[in-house]
Specification:
By secondary structure, the chain is an all-alpha fold. It is 80% helix and 0% strand. The longest helix has 30 residues, at 44-73. Mean pLDDT is 79; it is low at 314-322.
Length: 322
Protein backbone atom coordinates (compact mmCIF):
# COMPACT_ATOMS: atom_id res chain seq x y z
CA UNK A 1 0.00 0.00 0.00
CA UNK A 2 2.80 2.41 0.87
CA UNK A 3 4.57 1.64 -2.39
CA UNK A 4 1.35 2.35 -4.28
CA UNK A 5 0.97 5.73 -2.57
CA UNK A 6 4.58 6.60 -3.40
CA UNK A 7 3.99 5.63 -7.03
CA UNK A 8 0.86 7.80 -7.25
CA UNK A 9 2.67 10.71 -5.59
CA UNK A 10 5.60 10.34 -7.97
CA UNK A 11 3.33 10.34 -11.04
CA UNK A 12 1.40 13.36 -9.72
CA UNK A 13 4.66 15.23 -9.12
CA UNK A 14 5.90 14.43 -12.61
CA UNK A 15 2.61 15.63 -14.11
CA UNK A 16 2.76 18.84 -12.08
CA UNK A 17 6.31 19.52 -13.30
CA UNK A 18 5.30 18.94 -16.92
CA UNK A 19 2.37 21.36 -16.54
CA UNK A 20 4.69 23.84 -14.82
CA UNK A 21 7.15 23.60 -17.72
CA UNK A 22 4.29 24.21 -20.19
CA UNK A 23 3.12 27.41 -18.47
CA UNK A 24 6.68 28.72 -18.03
CA UNK A 25 7.28 28.50 -21.79
CA UNK A 26 4.07 30.35 -22.72
CA UNK A 27 3.85 34.01 -21.65
CA UNK A 28 0.05 34.11 -22.06
CA UNK A 29 -0.12 31.42 -19.36
CA UNK A 30 2.93 32.43 -17.33
CA UNK A 31 1.76 36.01 -16.75
CA UNK A 32 -1.60 35.24 -15.05
CA UNK A 33 0.08 32.45 -13.07
CA UNK A 34 2.71 34.95 -11.89
CA UNK A 35 0.00 37.44 -10.91
CA UNK A 36 -1.76 34.85 -8.77
CA UNK A 37 1.56 33.73 -7.24
CA UNK A 38 2.31 37.34 -6.28
CA UNK A 39 -1.22 37.67 -4.93
CA UNK A 40 -0.60 34.65 -2.72
CA UNK A 41 2.85 35.84 -1.65
CA UNK A 42 1.37 39.16 -0.50
CA UNK A 43 -1.50 37.44 1.37
CA UNK A 44 -3.91 39.14 -0.99
CA UNK A 45 -6.96 37.47 0.52
CA UNK A 46 -6.07 38.89 3.95
CA UNK A 47 -5.54 42.36 2.46
CA UNK A 48 -8.92 42.14 0.71
CA UNK A 49 -10.54 41.12 4.01
CA UNK A 50 -8.95 44.14 5.72
CA UNK A 51 -10.27 46.46 3.00
CA UNK A 52 -13.73 44.87 3.35
CA UNK A 53 -13.70 45.43 7.11
CA UNK A 54 -12.87 49.13 6.85
CA UNK A 55 -15.22 49.63 3.90
CA UNK A 56 -18.06 48.22 5.95
CA UNK A 57 -17.45 50.71 8.76
CA UNK A 58 -16.71 53.60 6.39
CA UNK A 59 -19.77 53.11 4.22
CA UNK A 60 -22.38 54.70 6.46
CA UNK A 61 -20.36 57.80 7.47
CA UNK A 62 -19.61 58.48 3.79
CA UNK A 63 -23.25 58.03 2.83
CA UNK A 64 -24.26 60.44 5.59
CA UNK A 65 -21.81 62.99 4.17
CA UNK A 66 -23.21 62.47 0.68
CA UNK A 67 -26.80 62.88 1.91
CA UNK A 68 -25.92 66.00 3.93
CA UNK A 69 -23.92 67.71 1.17
CA UNK A 70 -26.45 66.96 -1.56
CA UNK A 71 -29.28 68.11 0.71
CA UNK A 72 -27.43 71.39 1.32
CA UNK A 73 -26.79 72.13 -2.36
CA UNK A 74 -30.03 70.67 -3.77
CA UNK A 75 -32.53 72.25 -1.46
CA UNK A 76 -36.16 71.73 -2.26
CA UNK A 77 -35.42 68.81 -4.59
CA UNK A 78 -35.60 65.66 -2.45
CA UNK A 79 -36.19 63.63 -5.61
CA UNK A 80 -32.74 64.54 -6.97
CA UNK A 81 -31.11 63.90 -3.62
CA UNK A 82 -32.75 60.47 -3.43
CA UNK A 83 -31.60 59.75 -7.00
CA UNK A 84 -27.97 60.51 -6.10
CA UNK A 85 -28.08 58.28 -3.02
CA UNK A 86 -29.74 55.55 -5.07
CA UNK A 87 -27.04 55.83 -7.74
CA UNK A 88 -24.29 55.44 -5.14
CA UNK A 89 -25.99 52.42 -3.58
CA UNK A 90 -26.53 50.81 -6.98
CA UNK A 91 -22.93 49.59 -6.54
CA UNK A 92 -24.25 47.23 -3.83
CA UNK A 93 -26.72 44.87 -5.53
CA UNK A 94 -29.78 43.70 -3.57
CA UNK A 95 -28.51 45.01 -0.21
CA UNK A 96 -28.31 48.61 -1.46
CA UNK A 97 -32.08 49.06 -1.23
CA UNK A 98 -32.04 48.02 2.42
CA UNK A 99 -29.20 50.41 3.23
CA UNK A 100 -30.88 53.31 1.44
CA UNK A 101 -33.77 53.49 3.88
CA UNK A 102 -31.37 53.96 6.82
CA UNK A 103 -29.32 56.86 5.42
CA UNK A 104 -30.32 60.30 6.71
CA UNK A 105 -28.72 63.73 6.42
CA UNK A 106 -27.24 65.55 9.39
CA UNK A 107 -29.25 68.43 10.87
CA UNK A 108 -28.30 71.55 12.82
CA UNK A 109 -26.63 74.91 12.33
CA UNK A 110 -23.68 75.50 10.01
CA UNK A 111 -21.04 74.82 12.67
CA UNK A 112 -22.73 71.59 13.75
CA UNK A 113 -23.00 70.44 10.15
CA UNK A 114 -19.34 71.28 9.47
CA UNK A 115 -18.17 69.35 12.54
CA UNK A 116 -20.44 66.43 11.72
CA UNK A 117 -19.28 66.26 8.11
CA UNK A 118 -15.63 66.50 9.18
CA UNK A 119 -16.10 63.68 11.68
CA UNK A 120 -17.87 61.46 9.15
CA UNK A 121 -15.19 62.13 6.54
CA UNK A 122 -12.42 61.30 8.99
CA UNK A 123 -14.16 58.04 9.90
CA UNK A 124 -14.93 57.25 6.27
CA UNK A 125 -11.32 57.81 5.21
CA UNK A 126 -10.37 54.58 6.98
CA UNK A 127 -11.15 52.71 3.77
CA UNK A 128 -8.58 54.74 1.84
CA UNK A 129 -6.01 54.00 4.55
CA UNK A 130 -6.69 50.28 4.14
CA UNK A 131 -6.34 50.49 0.36
CA UNK A 132 -3.09 52.50 0.70
CA UNK A 133 -1.64 49.94 3.11
CA UNK A 134 -2.57 47.11 0.76
CA UNK A 135 -1.00 48.85 -2.25
CA UNK A 136 2.19 49.53 -0.28
CA UNK A 137 2.36 45.82 0.53
CA UNK A 138 1.77 44.91 -3.11
CA UNK A 139 4.59 47.24 -4.23
CA UNK A 140 6.83 46.00 -1.36
CA UNK A 141 7.40 49.55 -0.09
CA UNK A 142 9.80 49.44 2.88
CA UNK A 143 8.13 50.32 6.17
CA UNK A 144 10.19 53.43 6.82
CA UNK A 145 9.51 54.75 3.31
CA UNK A 146 5.77 54.73 3.76
CA UNK A 147 3.82 57.98 4.01
CA UNK A 148 3.00 59.27 7.52
CA UNK A 149 -0.57 58.86 8.67
CA UNK A 150 -1.54 62.53 8.28
CA UNK A 151 -0.28 62.78 4.70
CA UNK A 152 -1.84 59.46 3.75
CA UNK A 153 -5.17 60.57 5.21
CA UNK A 154 -5.14 63.86 3.24
CA UNK A 155 -4.35 62.06 -0.01
CA UNK A 156 -6.97 59.46 0.88
CA UNK A 157 -9.63 62.15 1.30
CA UNK A 158 -8.76 63.52 -2.15
CA UNK A 159 -9.13 60.05 -3.65
CA UNK A 160 -12.43 59.53 -1.79
CA UNK A 161 -13.83 62.55 -3.62
CA UNK A 162 -12.90 60.94 -6.93
CA UNK A 163 -14.29 57.63 -5.70
CA UNK A 164 -17.67 59.07 -4.67
CA UNK A 165 -18.07 60.93 -7.98
CA UNK A 166 -17.14 57.76 -9.86
CA UNK A 167 -19.49 55.59 -7.80
CA UNK A 168 -22.43 57.92 -8.40
CA UNK A 169 -21.67 58.11 -12.13
CA UNK A 170 -21.19 54.36 -12.47
CA UNK A 171 -24.35 53.62 -10.50
CA UNK A 172 -26.37 55.92 -12.74
CA UNK A 173 -25.00 54.34 -15.91
CA UNK A 174 -25.54 50.80 -14.61
CA UNK A 175 -29.13 51.68 -13.78
CA UNK A 176 -29.55 52.87 -17.36
CA UNK A 177 -27.85 49.76 -18.75
CA UNK A 178 -30.09 47.38 -16.79
CA UNK A 179 -33.35 49.27 -17.36
CA UNK A 180 -35.81 48.28 -20.06
CA UNK A 181 -36.62 50.36 -23.06
CA UNK A 182 -33.20 52.00 -23.25
CA UNK A 183 -31.79 52.31 -26.75
CA UNK A 184 -28.08 51.98 -25.91
CA UNK A 185 -27.61 49.96 -22.72
CA UNK A 186 -24.28 48.64 -24.08
CA UNK A 187 -22.88 52.17 -24.37
CA UNK A 188 -23.87 52.90 -20.77
CA UNK A 189 -22.07 49.75 -19.64
CA UNK A 190 -18.93 50.72 -21.56
CA UNK A 191 -18.97 54.21 -20.02
CA UNK A 192 -19.47 52.72 -16.53
CA UNK A 193 -16.47 50.45 -17.08
CA UNK A 194 -14.38 53.42 -18.22
CA UNK A 195 -15.29 55.29 -15.02
CA UNK A 196 -14.34 52.25 -12.94
CA UNK A 197 -10.96 52.11 -14.69
CA UNK A 198 -10.36 55.82 -14.07
CA UNK A 199 -11.23 55.52 -10.35
CA UNK A 200 -8.96 52.49 -9.90
CA UNK A 201 -6.10 54.11 -11.87
CA UNK A 202 -6.35 57.18 -9.63
CA UNK A 203 -6.10 54.97 -6.54
CA UNK A 204 -3.12 53.07 -7.97
CA UNK A 205 -1.33 56.36 -8.71
CA UNK A 206 -2.23 58.50 -5.69
CA UNK A 207 -2.42 56.16 -2.72
CA UNK A 208 0.89 54.22 -2.68
CA UNK A 209 3.66 55.92 -0.69
CA UNK A 210 6.09 55.58 -3.63
CA UNK A 211 3.74 56.88 -6.28
CA UNK A 212 4.18 54.92 -9.52
CA UNK A 213 3.78 56.90 -12.76
CA UNK A 214 0.52 56.67 -14.69
CA UNK A 215 2.00 54.46 -17.40
CA UNK A 216 2.77 51.80 -14.77
CA UNK A 217 -0.72 51.72 -13.27
CA UNK A 218 -2.98 51.87 -16.33
CA UNK A 219 -2.65 48.19 -17.41
CA UNK A 220 -3.65 46.86 -13.99
CA UNK A 221 -6.39 49.48 -13.69
CA UNK A 222 -7.88 48.18 -16.93
CA UNK A 223 -7.82 44.63 -15.57
CA UNK A 224 -9.34 45.70 -12.24
CA UNK A 225 -11.92 47.97 -13.90
CA UNK A 226 -13.15 45.19 -16.18
CA UNK A 227 -13.34 42.73 -13.27
CA UNK A 228 -15.18 45.34 -11.18
CA UNK A 229 -17.66 46.00 -14.00
CA UNK A 230 -18.21 42.26 -14.44
CA UNK A 231 -18.93 41.93 -10.73
CA UNK A 232 -21.36 44.84 -10.90
CA UNK A 233 -23.15 43.27 -13.86
CA UNK A 234 -23.45 39.88 -12.13
CA UNK A 235 -23.79 41.41 -8.68
CA UNK A 236 -27.48 40.69 -8.13
CA UNK A 237 -26.96 36.99 -8.79
CA UNK A 238 -23.84 36.81 -6.58
CA UNK A 239 -25.31 38.66 -3.59
CA UNK A 240 -28.71 36.95 -3.87
CA UNK A 241 -26.98 33.56 -3.66
CA UNK A 242 -25.09 34.66 -0.55
CA UNK A 243 -28.25 35.98 1.11
CA UNK A 244 -30.39 32.97 0.20
CA UNK A 245 -27.75 30.61 1.55
CA UNK A 246 -27.49 32.47 4.85
CA UNK A 247 -30.96 33.90 5.45
CA UNK A 248 -32.40 30.69 6.92
CA UNK A 249 -29.70 30.61 9.60
CA UNK A 250 -28.74 34.24 10.16
CA UNK A 251 -31.95 36.09 9.25
CA UNK A 252 -31.36 39.84 9.03
CA UNK A 253 -27.59 39.36 9.37
CA UNK A 254 -27.65 37.67 5.96
CA UNK A 255 -27.71 41.20 4.50
CA UNK A 256 -24.45 41.96 6.29
CA UNK A 257 -22.97 38.73 4.94
CA UNK A 258 -24.08 39.65 1.43
CA UNK A 259 -22.63 43.15 1.72
CA UNK A 260 -19.28 41.93 3.07
CA UNK A 261 -19.08 39.22 0.42
CA UNK A 262 -19.68 41.74 -2.31
CA UNK A 263 -17.10 44.22 -1.00
CA UNK A 264 -14.59 41.39 -0.51
CA UNK A 265 -14.89 40.25 -4.13
CA UNK A 266 -14.51 43.84 -5.34
CA UNK A 267 -11.41 44.34 -3.18
CA UNK A 268 -9.88 41.14 -4.55
CA UNK A 269 -10.52 42.31 -8.12
CA UNK A 270 -8.78 45.63 -7.42
CA UNK A 271 -5.80 43.94 -5.75
CA UNK A 272 -5.41 41.52 -8.67
CA UNK A 273 -5.11 44.56 -10.94
CA UNK A 274 -2.48 46.05 -8.63
CA UNK A 275 -0.53 42.78 -8.63
CA UNK A 276 -0.66 42.73 -12.43
CA UNK A 277 1.01 46.15 -12.49
CA UNK A 278 3.86 44.98 -10.26
CA UNK A 279 4.40 41.75 -12.20
CA UNK A 280 4.41 43.65 -15.50
CA UNK A 281 6.70 46.43 -14.26
CA UNK A 282 9.26 44.07 -12.66
CA UNK A 283 8.85 41.29 -15.25
CA UNK A 284 8.10 38.77 -12.52
CA UNK A 285 7.26 35.89 -14.83
CA UNK A 286 7.49 33.01 -15.34
CA UNK A 287 7.04 31.79 -11.76
CA UNK A 288 7.52 28.16 -10.79
CA UNK A 289 4.52 26.33 -9.36
CA UNK A 290 6.50 23.40 -8.00
CA UNK A 291 10.00 24.58 -7.03
CA UNK A 292 12.81 23.73 -6.74
CA UNK A 293 14.44 24.97 -8.82
CA UNK A 294 13.13 28.53 -8.50
CA UNK A 295 13.01 30.78 -11.55
CA UNK A 296 14.74 34.15 -11.77
CA UNK A 297 11.34 35.78 -11.16
CA UNK A 298 10.91 33.72 -7.99
CA UNK A 299 14.24 34.96 -6.66
CA UNK A 300 13.50 38.59 -7.59
CA UNK A 301 10.13 38.47 -5.87
CA UNK A 302 11.69 36.99 -2.72
CA UNK A 303 14.39 39.68 -2.71
CA UNK A 304 11.78 42.46 -2.98
CA UNK A 305 9.78 41.04 -0.09
CA UNK A 306 12.91 40.73 2.02
CA UNK A 307 13.84 44.33 1.22
CA UNK A 308 10.40 45.44 2.38
CA UNK A 309 10.78 43.80 5.76
CA UNK A 310 14.47 44.35 6.49
CA UNK A 311 15.34 47.67 4.87
CA UNK A 312 14.97 49.61 8.12
CA UNK A 313 17.37 47.31 9.98
CA UNK A 314 19.84 47.50 7.09
CA UNK A 315 19.73 51.29 7.03
CA UNK A 316 20.47 51.38 10.77
CA UNK A 317 23.48 49.08 10.34
CA UNK A 318 24.82 51.24 7.49
CA UNK A 319 24.41 54.36 9.61
CA UNK A 320 26.34 52.78 12.46
CA UNK A 321 29.17 51.74 10.11
CA UNK A 322 29.50 55.21 8.63
Amino acid sequence: MAARHRSISKRAGALARRLDAVQERRPWLAFPVAVMRKFGDDRGSSLAALISYYTFFSLFPLLVVLATVTGFFIRGRPDRQAALIHSALAQFPVVGANIEGNVHALNGNLLTLALGIAGCLWAGAAVSDAVRTALDDVWDVPRHHRAPVWRGRIVGLAWLLVFVIGVVGTGTLLSIATSRGVALPGSALVLATAIDIAVVATAFHLLPSDRPPWREVVPGAIVAGILWAALQTAGSWIVTRQIQGASDVYGFFALVIGLLSWVYLTAEAILIGAEANVVLHRRLWPRSLVPPPPTAADLTSSDEQAREGHALAGDRMDAEVH
